[in-house]
Design brief:
heterodimer, A: alpha+beta, two-stranded antiparallel ribbon, 6 helices, 27% helix, elongated, B: mainly alpha, 2 domains, 2 strands
Chain lengths: 180, 387
């Protein structure tokens, strides 16, 4: 039985005058009138951003201050709106990352195209790209709305690493077992 | 100074007094539009307009409070309405289209002339009302002139030559006819009671206030307490007459886009709104004069006794000065008017708009019989009491 039969009771005289309802409604609105505002006065007050929020995509460094991105271009391929453009380059000598082959020469994310889907973060094998807590992007030109590599690192900063993948890999190589 | 002013020729003096009253009504009516936005915002748990401020004023300490209250926003809006382009649509009747907002303003500001807005204690303890013209037809003049305001709505609706304004104009006229009757009948018992047999008859509003300032339990009671049904019917009809929600059928932006002012913009549009608020101010003033004891602060506390008490408490003879008394009475009446306007706004943001057929039904089937029954009951009662 999906249908519930409700007996409609006839309105009382007080209800038919409509006045008790109006009075009750006015009491409700009076409470709102005297109560605090529910809204936030944005830009003086900012909302608290919970962890796991998908904000502006950024590049992060590992706790040793090394560039994590190895320029595999998976994010570029997976990006649905094609907002990411990576120009791979060689690793500069003495950067402490000799165990990887490549590093991005240029890394551009066009924020006019980005849809904040987070697929780049999900696909990254090096955990180098993160959607962090910045939610507001503005600029006066199209060029300003493209985040370049230095800007991306500035936004991302350094995140704690849970795996130290490179350290594990390097230790395995030094043991020369070929497996890790 | 006062003597010099009173020594001016009568027409010039009348002109000055008229200008003074208009200079008060116009900004108050404009400020009401900001008050409306703020009340709306607070009821919806928002802060409301609080950003606009010319940076020049930022260093003045009080200016920030004005900013939070939206006063600068009001000025910015007013300035914008004055200077923005006023497009004249091609399909309108140019003469009447331009005339309608002017016609809206004229009755709105004309009714003020016959509404007493204060009083002072004259020679021999006699209360002298402050009014631009203390005519004996009082309430009749208010009703007669206030009803003319509806012509501007009809004219705007017709001259706009498009369907939504037209429907708005038609609704405005039908609504006025439906509620004017109940309003009149609601007020009649008040004047039946005030005009005792044997005394000279008067429809003057100050007479009603005087009647509510008499000594004794029944003499000092406001008509709100002795005639609650009249007050209720008058208040509801007032909502309908001033086209306020829940009766704002002529505007009714949900179904008529903007109603009678759909085709209007800029200064002409704002004139309609200043007229609406001016009508509200006059309506509230009439309500407080008729039912809330006018310039008496509290029931059973007439203005004269209030000033006497203040005189005794402070020991200052200043309270008995006619100028101070006049000022106190104006402030009391203005406070009542602003309170009623606040209630207007409070109800506007609480109660949803009636459907048009409901408006007609309430007017003709509920309010009119109620006011007629009320009139008959009070007529019999007053005939019995004042036999």
């Amino acid at each position: 039985m999906a249908v519930i039969q409700v007996q409609r009771t006839p309105l009382s005289l007080a209800e038919r005058t409509y006045l008790p309802q109006v009075m009750g409604a006015m009491w409700t609105t009076l409470k709102h009138l005297l109560g605090p505002a529910d809204t936030m006065e944005y830009h003086e007050q900012r909302p608290a951003i919970p962890p796991g929020y998908r904000g502006v995509p950024t590049l992060v460094r590992d706790p040793n201050g090394r560039e994590k991105c190895v320029s595999c271009q998976l994010c570029e391929f997976v990006c649905p709106p094609k907002a990411i453009r990576i120009t791979p380059g060689s690793v500069p000598e003495g950067a402490g990352v000799d165990h990887v082959e490549k590093a991005p020469q240029a890394f551009d994310i066009d924020m006019l195209r980005c849809i904040y889907c987070g697929l780049c973060e999900e696909v990254c094998p090096e955990e180098a790209i993160f959607l962090l807590q910045q939610y507001s992007m503005s600029g006066y030109s199209r060029a300003e709305m493209v985040n370049h590599k230095d800007r991306l690192y500035e936004l991302g900063g350094t995140l704690p690493d849970r795996h130290f993948k490179w350290g594990v890999k390097k230790a395995a190589e030094e043991r020369a077992s070929g497996h890790h | 100074m006062v003597d010099m002013l009173l020594g001016l020729p009568a027409p010039l003096l009348a002109l000055l007094k008229g200008a003074a009253v208009i200079l008060v009504i116009f900004p108050v009516a404009a400020a009401c539009s900001m008050a409306e936005r703020k009340v709306c915002a607070w009821i919806q748990s928002r802060p409301g307009p609080n950003r606009a401020m010319p940076p020049v004023f930022a260093w003045i300490p009080g200016a920030v409070i004005l900013q939070r209250l939206g006063v600068w926003q009001l000025m910015a809006d007013g300035g914008k309405f004055l200077f923005k382009e006023e497009p004249l649509p091609d399909h309108v009747n140019r003469l009447y289209y331009t005339l309608a907002p002017v016609i809206a303003m004229v009755p709105a500001l004309t009714t003020v002339t016959v509404v007493p807005f204060g009083a002072y204690v004259g020679a021999g303890g006699r209360i002298v009302p402050l009014a631009l013209s203390s005519v004996d037809v009082g309430i009749l003049a208010v009703f007669a002139v206030a009803s003319l305001g509806i012509y501007s709505l009809i004219l705007a609706g017709w001259a706009s030559n498009s369907k939504y304004p037209f429907l708005g104009g038609v609704r405005a006229s039908a609504q006025l006819i439906s509620y004017e009757l109940s309003m009149m009948l609601a007020v009649l018992p008040v004047f039946l009671w005030v005009n005792e047999p044997g005394a000279a008859g008067s429809l003057s509003l100050s007479r009603v206030v005087e009647f509510q300032s008499r000594p004794g339990f029944w003499g000092g009671a406001w008509f709100l307490f002795t005639m609650p049904v009249s007050a209720f019917v008058f208040a509801v009809a007032l909502f309908a007459e001033t086209n306020r929600q829940p009766f704002d059928m002529p505007e009714s932006e949900a179904d008529l886009v903007g109603g009678f002012h759909t085709e209007y913009g800029a200064f002409k549009w704002s004139l309609f709104f200043v007229a609406e608020y001016a009508n509200m101010i006059v309506g509230s003033a009439v309500f407080s004069l008729l039912f809330l004891g006018g310039w008496n602060l509290l029931p059973w506390l007439p203005l004269a006794s209030l000033l006497e008490t203040l005189h005794h408490l402070t020991g200052s003879a200043l309270w008995l000065h006619p100028l101070v008394a006049g000022l106190v009475s104006v402030v009391i009446l203005l406070a009542k008017v602003l309170l009623i306007i606040f209630i207007f706004m409070w109800i506007r943001w609480t109660v949803p708009r009636f459907r048009y057929d409901q408006v007609m039904k309430i007017g003709w089937q509920k309010l009119l019989p109620l006011s007629i029954a009320n009139l008959i009951a009070y007529a019999l009662g007053i005939a019995f009491l004042q036999r």
